[in-house]
Amino acid sequence: MNQKFTKEFNEIKKELEKARNILLVAHPRPDGDTAGSVFALREYLVGDLRKKVSVACEDSLPEYLQVIFPEEKFEKPDNINIDDFDLLVGCDAVERGFEKIVGKKEKNQRVVLIDHHESLEMKNIIPDIVVADPKYSSVCEILFVFFDFHRIGISKKMATALLTGILHDTAVFQHANTTSRVMEIAAELMRRGAPMNKIIETTFKNKKLATLKLWGRAMERAEVNEKTGAIVSFVTREDMEELGMDDDSVGRIAELLNTVSGTKFSLVLVEKDENKVKGSLRSEWYKNVDVSEIARLLKGGGHKLASGFEIVGKIVKDENGIAIK
Ligand SMILES: [Mn+2]
Questions:
Q1: Would residue 302 be called left, alpha or beta, if left means φ above 0 and alpha means ψ between -120 and 50 degrees?
Q2: Percent of the chain predicted with pLDDT > 70
Q3: How far is residue 305's CA from residue 254's CA, in Å, rounded to a whole number?
Q4: How much distance in Å is there from the Cα of 36 to the middle of ligand 1?
Q5: N- to C-terminal Cα distance for the chain?
């Protein structure tokens, strides 16, 4: 096992053991990785260490994750008092919401961040311990390595949570972040009772007809730019209103478009509200494109093969193609 974080893993364990009241923070619009990691950690903290633990997230647990975690719930940030906690732990895409929930760090508080995203810049909070490495598929993979490093027993519940994160962030072992280590960890988690088929079914095979219709509209509009190799499409506010869908249902369109042969990367533009457009970029390792460079040019961020950005404007399609104006 990779022991790059030996020092951090030892420090984190000490902090977890020392703390009395711990807050775990998931990112907004939670996915399988942020949810899986906070729930696996909570299980360890409450089960093994008998700690008082709260789990906070700006948004509630999406339906498909409620099926996998029927006993779990997020607490709304408004209902918790940050001052009550002596240890604050952010898991996954920490930049997206940790500081919004935590605000400022008090003198007596310690902050631990665990992430697998390239950039991790905090504005107001200087974390005490950071484990962040984009070479990991997911925070759940990092946590498995942490538990394994400390020989902490992984229960069926913890295994289920960790495998959920790994399956989510690798899109069931399809993305380039699926290393041999990921496969070994997944096998070990199955051995410990994680129901892989159930997780795959609830996460990836529970589509609503309206979702497919929305995807259909986007597929219909897709255009390939021969010069750049980009395949581009879009979803408008109108589409989502007509089909009664929200932003969450557009998540995989960029991935699907990216499967068109001969393309270098995909770009899907989604109207977020009146005057804001969200862009999602995807590529594959064999296409040799770093989409995070494109995202950064537009003040966004992300990974080499999966990035995003937000810009002000509206989507316009005319004879010259798709543009934001
Ligand atoms: Mn993740």
A1: left
A2: 99
A3: 11
A4: 9
A5: 49
Q: Ligand 1 center to residue 170 CA distance, Å?
A: 9
pLDDT digits (tens, 9 = 90+) for 93-122: 998 889 999 988 888 999 999 999 876 788
Distance 27 CA to ligand 1 centre (A): 10
Question: What domains are there in the chain, each with its CATH number?
Answer: 6-204 (3.90.1640.10), 209-324 (3.10.310.30)
| Six-digit token string for 253 | 């369109």
Give the integer Cα–Cα distance in Å for 91 and 136. Answer: 13
- Ligand 1 centroid to 136 CA: how many Å? 9
pTM, two decimals, is 0.87
**pLDDT digits over 8-45, tens only?**
999 999 999 999 999 999 999 999 999 999 999 999 99
Confidence of residue 280 (pLDDT cuts 50, 70, 90): very high
Residues with Cβ within 8 Å of residue 105, at least 6 apart in sequence = 88, 111, 124, 125, 126
Ligand 1 centre distance from Cα of residue 168 (Å)? 8
User: How many CB atoms are closer than 10 A to CB 44?
Assistant: 24
3-state class (DSSP) for residue 167: helix
Residue type, 227: K
Give 325 Cα–ligand 1 centroid separation in angstroms. Answer: 32
Question: How far, in Å, CA of 37 to CA of 292, rounded?
Answer: 24
Task: Give 317 Cα–ligand 1 centroid separation in angstroms.
Answer: 33
91 CA from centroid of ligand 1 (Å): 8
| pLDDT average, residue stretch 148-174 | 97
